[in-house]
Structures are given as structure tokens and as C-alpha cells.
């Protein structure tokens, strides 16, 4: 499985949510609304989720193993950093 496209749709410096991202796998499957979040230990991703009847949030789509999650997170955070740099260059 290859990540073939990453689109950073929103970039902000304010608040804990820093960006909303869509990621495409093998040019045939896309996952929207992955969030880039600023946590106590740095940036991380949150997969798209929905509130269940009990009030808890549950992921709609997510990686099955930690290696895949790490690959997805690493790629998304690289694209986020690039988008942040491009936004800063445009503001100058």
C-alpha cells in the first residue's frame, strides 16, 4: 500500500487543531478529515471519527497496526510542515 496523495486543506497556528488533511492510497482510496493536532508531546494525527450514542467518539477509519499509523502520521506531518512553510512565505 502506497500513499499517493496528501492534501492539506486547512492550516492555522491558533488552537490545538492545526490542519485538516485528506490522504489517498494507491490512487484508488481516499480518507478525508484527518486532523493534525498539537498535543503536549508535539503534533499527532487524529483519524476521522463520529460521536456514538454513548457520547464517546469512535474512529470511522483507522490503521490496523502501529507501523501503518506511523507511516501515515509521518507522511501527513511532512506535508503539513511544507504547507505551513508555504503559507509563511506567502505572508512575507
Give an overview in words.
With 92 residues, the protein is α+β, with helices and mostly antiparallel strands. It has a single domain, classed as 2-Layer Sandwich (Arylsulfatase, C-terminal domain), CATH 3.30.1120.40. Helix content is 28%, strand content 43%. The protein has one helix and six strands, in the order E-E-E-E-E-E-H. It has one helix at 66-91, and strands at 3-11, 17-25, 29-39, 42-46, 49-51, 57-59. The strands form two sheets. The chain has a four-stranded antiparallel beta sheet, covered by helices on one side. A two-stranded antiparallel sheet has the order 5-6. The longest helix is centred in the C-terminal third of the chain and has 26 residues, at 66-91. The relative contact order is 0.19. InterPro entries: SpoVG, SpoVG_sf. Keywords: Cell cycle, Cell division, Septation. Could be involved in septation. This is Putative septation protein SpoVG. Belongs to the SpoVG family.
